Automatic annotation (TrEMBL):
This is XS domain-containing protein. Residues 168-194, 207-226 are annotated as: Disordered. Signal peptide: none annotated. Residues 31-86 form the XS domain. It holds the Pfam family XS. It comes from Papaver somniferum (Opium poppy). It comes from the Eukaryota. GO terms for biological process: gene silencing by siRNA-directed DNA methylation.
Length: 226
């Protein structure tokens, strides 16, 4: 691997600036070998394939590297695979220490596991939200019941107060009407007694006048007899 690194180093130095300007991020340089780290998701996989295809399209892929005497003709690039990870050298050691060797199935299984975990977390979150919602609903129902109960008691008290008020007003009206009737009755009775007394006085006056007349006649008769 040391010989390969030395032969690649010349091409690496001559293309370093153009590599950076092309939008590639350099993560490590190991004795003439450049390592680019990508994300371990499908986006990183697509970027890696695009990276490899770009080198293959210009005749600088992994196959071309071997045919060209291991890098004599310039810079070569490819996606590290199992043989690169297990290669006994600087690059293999670096990859085994800093990277994960995964197959597409491994990535799919990991995505499936993450999705299942995400679904589990979401289900748990929904359950918690439902429990909180049930608790809030219970508190709301209890509060609503208390308010309805208070409103019912208030209505009953208000109804009783109105009934008592109407009863008091009616009783007062009845008493006033009774007093008025009694006063009218007393007034009528007094008027009747007044008329009766007047008649009695008139009778007495007549009786008095008659008695005076009778007395005078009696005196005259006595005088005539003498």
């Amino acid at each position: 691997m040391g010989d390969i690194s030395r032969r690649v180093e010349t091409g690496l130095k001559s293309n370093w600036l153009s590599l950076i300007l092309s939008g590639y991020t350099v993560c490590g340089v190991l004795r003439g070998v450049l390592v680019r780290r990508l994300s371990s998701d499908w986006s990183g996989f697509r970027s890696a394939m695009s990276f490899e295809n770009e080198f293959n399209s210009t005749g600088h892929g992994k196959t071309h590297f071997g045919l060209d005497g291991c890098g004599v003709g310039g810079m070569y690039g490819w996606v590290a695979r199992e043989d690169d990870y297990k290669f006994d050298g600087v690059v293999g050691n670096f990859l085994s220490r800093n990277g994960d060797l995964k197959t597409i199935k491994d990535i799919e299984d990991e995505d499936l596991r993450k999705n299942k975990q995400l679904v589990t977390n979401l289900v748990h979150l929904v359950d918690e939200k439902n429990k909180n919602l049930e608790q809030v609903q219970l508190q709301y129902n209890e509060t609503s019941y208390s308010l309805r109960n208070l409103a019912s008691q208030h209505d009953k008290l208000n109804k009783k107060y109105n009934e008592e008020t109407l009863k008091m007003q009616q009783d007062q009206k009845d008493r006033l009407e009774k007093m008025s009737n009694e006063r009218e009755e007393l007034k009528s009775k007094m008027e009747s007694q007044k008329e009766e007394l007047k008649l009695q006085i008139e009778e007495l006056e007549k009786f008095k006048a008659q008695s005076e007349s009778d007395r005078e006649k009696l005196v005259e008769e006595k005088q005539k007899k003498r």
